[in-house]
Amino acid sequence: MAEFTRQRGKRQEDGGLGSVLDLLLANARLVLGVSGAAVLAIATLAVKRLIDRATSPRDEGDPKAEQKTLEESWQDLALIKATPKPRKKQRREDLSEPLLSPARPPAPEPKVCSAPPETPRVESSPLCCLTLQEKLLSHYSSQLAVPEVQASLAPQLARSICAQLQNFLRSKCPELPFSSLFLSGPLLDGLGALAADHVNLMLPVVLDAALWSLIPGEDTVVRNPQYWMIKRTDLEYFPRGRSPWDRFIVGRYLSSNALNETLRKMLVASINWPAIGSLLGCVIHPVMASQELKLEVKHDQVELSITLFPVVEMEDKVLLAAPPEGLVENLWLESFYRAEVSKVKELDAGDSGARQHCLRILNGICKSHPALHKLSGSPLTHVVLHLSATSSDWAEESLADRFQQVLEELVSYLEEGVLPSYFNHKINLFCELLEEEIDEMGFMVYRAISEPELLLKEK
Fold first, then answer.
1. Which helix (H) or strand (E) covers residue 446, if one does?
2. Which residues lie below 8 Å from residue 88, measured CB to CB, with a gap of 6+?
């Protein structure tokens, strides 16, 4: 009975001590965390065993009892020492500090890695503050402007070739009244050449107005007001042979194709281009595969393409020997280029406007954009001329406003699929574009109205 009472009292004491330990461990878990509480539990258990062994009676007759108790105590102490110490809880402010080992010297990599993020921020921040006008001017000067060396060398080469071709025609075809050749194109007229790589060479064909007359495009088989036919008149009184151009007549009409084919044979087979190229310090050869009359010129500093156009000027019309593709070979294309350049310069001279500057930027952007290159040249010029009739403020300070207004006008013309010529409203300058091309251009220009930077990206 006494033994039972003693064991029960011991269990009660053990139960009280266990309750205290449970409460302590529960609170320790909240304070120290899971790992810290686990370490504390192991240590507490070992100490409890030591206390139990110290308070429990030993068997006096067992000689190994004392040795066993000491061995178990060392095992418990070893258990305490083997338990890893919990890491010191990191403070919130320490989380922002870099974890550097004191045993290692600082590596040089952080200095290299920290430089790139700072450089873009410093360079890009001023660009975000640029106005649209500043962005347009910067884009033109850095991406679209023709280098001065090429801009001066290309026309010089073209003029030298023009003089050589003029001498050849006068000696080879003295009976054909060609007038003096002259150069034309954006590179010379300042309306937006993207590169010094193309020049038009105009060959005037002199006709006797008493023997030839113009037939409007509406009265031709193509029903296109942009094309004309040149008819030989009064054959009853002035028979064939009276005009030196009668050799190029097809069905009583002066054939642009027949004249082009004769000139092509001369360019390919009759002119000694290697000798002329050697004299001018370049290589010249005619292009065989092109429908147009083209020469390719290669120089150390520039590569140039020259297109030869026979041109007829009658009744205030300028007609080029550039017929459409197909079976119709007697058509002549009416050109408004000279009138476009003259009108734009006249308007700028009248109000000190920036139309030419605006056109140079627009032409450069459209020529360099794969979806908009067919808008460059005459279409853009006619949009600016139409807009000039309603908007009078073309000062340099309003360049960005006019730029966006041109885009808005262009979208409206593309939506209708019709861009009337400024000089002849019967002519639709979009007539040769496919519907898919018009849709793609319209979508791109529409996006550019709200995001002009889309047009300023490098292609």
1. helix 435-450
2. none
Place of tokens 């109000």: 351
Q: Strand pairing of 253-254 and 303-314?
A: unpaired
- CB-based contacts of 332: which residues, under 8 Å, 6+ apart? 227, 228, 229, 230, 254, 256, 312, 319, 320, 321, 322, 323
Radius of gyration of the chain (CA): 46
What CA–CA distances, in Å, run from 196 to 151, 163, 180, 375? 6, 20, 23, 19
Q: Using CA atoms, how far apart are residues 180 and 170, in angstroms rounded to an integer?
A: 10
Q: Which has the higher per-residue pLDDT, 145 or 293?
A: 293
| Helix %, strand %, coil % of the chain (to 5) | 55, 15, 30
Locate 110 and state its tokens.
């952080």
Q: What is the DSSP string of 292-328?
A: SEEEEEE-SS-EEEEEEEEEEEETTEEEES-PPSSS-
Q: Which residue is listed with tokens 């920036």? A: 354
CA dist 63 and 66 (Å) reads 7
Question: Both tokens of residue 79?
Answer: 């258990």
Q: Return d(Cα 202, Cα 218) in angstroms, integer.
A: 26
- Cα Dmax for the chain: 161
List pLDDT tens digits, range 19-73. Answer: 655 555 555 555 455 556 555 656 666 556 656 665 555 555 554 444 444 445 4
**Integer angstrom CA distances of residue 443 from 64, 431, 432, 439:** 99, 19, 19, 6
Burial of 57 per CB tally in 10 Å (0-12, 13-18, 19+): exposed
Kindly report the length of the chain.
Answer: 459
pTM: 0.70
